[in-house]
Amino acid sequence: MSDAIEDRLKALSIKLPEAAAPAANYVPYVISGNLLYISGQLPTEAGRMVATGHLGANVSLEDGQKAARACAINIIAQAKAALGGDLGRVTRILRINGFVASTPDFTEQHLVINGASGLLAEVFGEAGKHSRAAVGMAALPLGAAVEIDAILEVA
């Protein structure tokens, strides 16, 4: 299955980055039994933030979705690091929690987080379909527009 996932990533022109190191006093992931908890991932590509600011103000819905997609790529990179490079060990993406920096009147957080949900389903197939939350926040670390954490079931 690991080869199938790697093939899907390649077909999507996704080259996973090195898993990001924690920016504060926490670990990037924890494995407990058959569960992999991945800390919140910011929308970075090549060490730069993809989107900063607030949806409903200076970040468009499309840019928010791209930011959520970048978070999902970083989640996959953390999973790969946690699992010794073997993404085939992922049996299910159980849940993601999506946090969207947004103005009080912005109500499309669910559409923003679809940028991550869609990618996870594309990469992992049926095992990538998950439960989730999508909530608005006043602010996120480093001014990020989106942050997403995840819980995965692993073999």
TrEMBL record:
Q: Which residues form the Endoribonuclease L-PSP/chorismate mutase-like domain?
A: 6-144
Entry's InterPro entries?
Endoribo_LPSP/chorism_mut-like, RutC-like_sf
- Kindly give the Pfam families that the UniProt entry links to this protein: YjgF_endoribonc
Identification of the protein by name: Putative endoribonuclease L-PSP
